[in-house]
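Look over this today:
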Amino acid sequence: MIAPAHPLTVAAVQAEPVPGDVAGNATTAARLVGRAAGARIVVLPELFLPAYHPPTLAADPTGTDVAADADGRVDDPRLDPLRRAARDGGTTVVVGAAVRHPDGRRTISSLVVDSAGVVRAAYDKQQLWSGERELFTPGRRGATLLVDDWRFGLGICYDGCFPEHGRAAADDGAHGYLCPSGYLAGSEHRRDVYYAARALDNTMYVVFANAVDGADPWRFNGGAAVYDPEGRPLARGANTGTDVLVATLDPAALAATRAAHTMLADRLPDQGLPRTTVAG
């Protein structure tokens, strides 16, 4: 692994968007990016732009979606406040959206707004959860985001429940894993275990953003966090209330952790298949 040369400051956001209000939620996102002054990357929750509210997403696909062109570019004037915030802050923003592709696919996606204000549909969620399958198509491939000399695997919520998803990012040389999410109230234990585990499994930083509050049954539990490469939280939000959690990723700590905990180098090419069955 080639470690980055310099530290990188990131922010994980927990906030409550308004269902169906893409323009208003983009303005809220821009304000939250402003609160993360000094962060090079800001991660906002899954489906933050339309809000993770399946009744609204089903009833108004035209109003809740943004359109991507064949190159993944998104040119939607509702996102202008977010473009300005990224340019003004020299920030790369990762924010959740419902994306309509030229071939008709509708995906849960992470938009990346770069520091020049260009918006791209960078990653489509591969592991759809429960009723998401009725509204969306799963993504076809993983994605890695390059910011300065840092590499970040992109995941969305349920993706992070699968160890192999984070491992695929690590195999691609990722130093970190960015996970916009929408965890419902009552799932706090799983929320806190999955992303700490992905950090430790792969000795990489994890930036976990989450929706918060809202009305039942679509009430979310916050707990946004940045985890170090041993799975310890550098910053974590409460289970309710808007927050912007800022932390600095240290390349020396990353290198030291990977030198001390060599799972990525030591793992077997397979787990000894075929398996042996032993009677007890």
